[in-house]
């Protein structure tokens, strides 16, 4: 029986134009590192290391995959860069918020799901540190406390669309695929969860299908449609 909802974050719980988000993100990062490295080169290195995390098939923490390669690319002390990244997510990263907005329907859906007794997990692609995830949850009008589990690059070893990521999440929350539904806006990264037997709901407001896969989902609709779907779900407290 369905008792757990797995949510994607960016462009699902947190509406955004992802191109604008990325542009502002790297602009602010360049300001933080201006005395250490050219901003365009930094963005290139971050993208390369992120791609390695996404493609990684080894049993290694995502943060380790990222930083090991990053240390090979930079001309400088990795610890200095790590401290600067940490400061960035506490300060200039907050300037990225205006590229996002809130969905009242998704906020109400999360609150109603909690009232109805569903377990909620944030299955965001773990390419950001936890503090960045917490900020983006706040921007969405929600709280980290709304979720029993939040993936991050410190605490996960795989990324979407690798099915090992979803197995990792299921193990952490101690749920079977049949108990879960994945809600997301990416036709590949989120809907691939169906291959494990997880039910799926495709959010279409900011639909992504950059790999041009055949779209398969148990349910699909806009933010308002998802809230109506939640309203119709059974109350697990009864």
Describe this structure as you would to a colleague.
The protein is α/β, with parallel strands linked by helices and 238 residues long. It folds into two domains: 145 residues, HAD superfamily/HAD-like (Rossmann fold), CATH 3.40.50.1000; 79 residues. Strands 3-2-1-4-5-6 form a six-stranded parallel sheet, sandwiched between helices. Helix 6 links the parallel strand 2 and strand 3. The longest helix has 17 residues. The chain is globular. The two termini are 14 Å apart.
Distance between the termini: 14 Å
The domain count comes to: 2
CATH architectural group of the largest domain = 3-Layer(aba) Sandwich
Instruction: Give the proportion of residues in helices.
Output: 40-55%
The CATH topology of the largest domain is what? Rossmann fold
The largest sheet, given as strand count, sense and whether it forms a barrel, is: 6 strands, parallel
Shape descriptor: globular
Can you tell me the residue ranges where pLDDT is under 50 for at least 5 consecutive residues? none
Tally the beta strands.
6
> What is the structural class?
alpha/beta
């Amino acid at each position: 029986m369905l008792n757990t909802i797995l949510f994607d974050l960016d462009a699902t719980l947190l509406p955004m134009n992802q191109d604008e988000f990325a542009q502002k993100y790297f602009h602010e990062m360049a300001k933080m590192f201006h005395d250490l490295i050219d901003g365009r080169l930094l963005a290139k290195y971050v993208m390369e290391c992120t791609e390695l995390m996404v493609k990684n098939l080894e049993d290694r923490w995502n943060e380790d995959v990222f930083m090991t390669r990053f240390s090979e690319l930079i001309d400088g002390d990795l610890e200095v860069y790590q401290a600067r990244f940490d400061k960035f997510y506490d300060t200039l990263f907050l300037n990225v918020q205006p590229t996002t907005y809130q969905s009242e329907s998704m906020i109400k859906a999360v609150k109603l799901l909690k009232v109805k007794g569903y377990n909620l997990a944030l299955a965001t692609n773990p390419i950001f540190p936890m503090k960045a995830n917490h900020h983006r949850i706040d921007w969405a009008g929600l709280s980290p406390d709304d979720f029993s589990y939040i993936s991050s690059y410190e605490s996960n070893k795989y990324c979407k669309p690798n099915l090992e990521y979803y197995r990792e999440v299921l193990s952490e929350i101690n749920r079977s695929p049949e108990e879960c539904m994945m809600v997301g806006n990416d036709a590949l990264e989120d809907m691939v969860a169906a291959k494990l037997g997880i039910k799926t709901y495709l959010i279409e407001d900011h639909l992504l299908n950059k790999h041009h896969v055949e779209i398969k989902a148990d349910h699909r609709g806009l933010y308002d449609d998802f809230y109506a779907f939640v309203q119709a779900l059974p109350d697990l407290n009864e």
